[in-house]
Amino acid sequence: MQDTHLAALSPDLQMLYAAAVVARQNSYSPYSHFAVGAAVRTAEGRIYGGCNVENASYGLCCCGERNAIFAAVCAGERNLEAICVVADTEKPVSPCGACRQVMREFNIKTILLGNMAGAIKICTLEELLPYGFDL
Ligand code: THU
């Protein structure tokens, strides 16, 4: 797990961060007031955004990173290479366990966790989810 900053990222990863920040603007989070944005990049370079969407029945809330992955998959994508997740946290946001398992499903190699100040952690799936579930 590598700690870095937005300014030190390659241009394509800076673009992925920017897409996650834009996606976060659509967060529907009237219950937690915790807005999350995410963006997924495919092997071909296409980018899909997602945000968290909450519900009065709290258990139905869906995380931003899962919505971004599902948006890509629903568009027919299968080769997901990188994801960036952002929230207004002191340290780079930590994705929940369910989202880590969904990242594993699509074998996303590069995972960027960020905050709104541009602090970034770059990590692998194995670092985030050792011994994840598989069939
Ligand atoms: N949330 C995410 O979008 N991603 C995570 O990895 C953790 C939590 C959302 C779910 C809920 O809308 C809000 O943050 C508070 O838990």
Overview of the structural elements:
The chain has one domain (2-128): Cytidine Deaminase, domain 2 (3-Layer(aba) Sandwich), CATH 3.40.140.10. Helix content is 28%, strand content 26%. It has 4 helices and 6 strands, in the order βαββαβαββα. The mean pLDDT is 98. The structure holds tetrahydrodeoxyuridine. Tetrahydrodeoxyuridine binds at residues 29, 32, 34, 36, 52, 54, 61, 63-65, 95-96, 99.
Structural class: alpha+beta
Mean pLDDT: 98
Number of strands: 6
**Assembly type:** single chain
Question: Which fold does the CATH topology refer to?
Answer: Cytidine Deaminase, domain 2
Instruction: Give the name of the CATH architecture.
Output: 3-Layer(aba) Sandwich
**SSE topology string:** EHEEHEHEEH
What is the gyration radius calculated from CA atoms?
14 Å
Concise summary:
The protein is built from four helices and six strands. It has 135 residues and is an alpha+beta fold.
Structure characteristics:
135 residues, alpha+beta, Cytidine Deaminase, domain 2, 6-stranded mixed β-sheet, 4 helices, 6 strands, 28% helix, binds tetrahydrodeoxyuridine
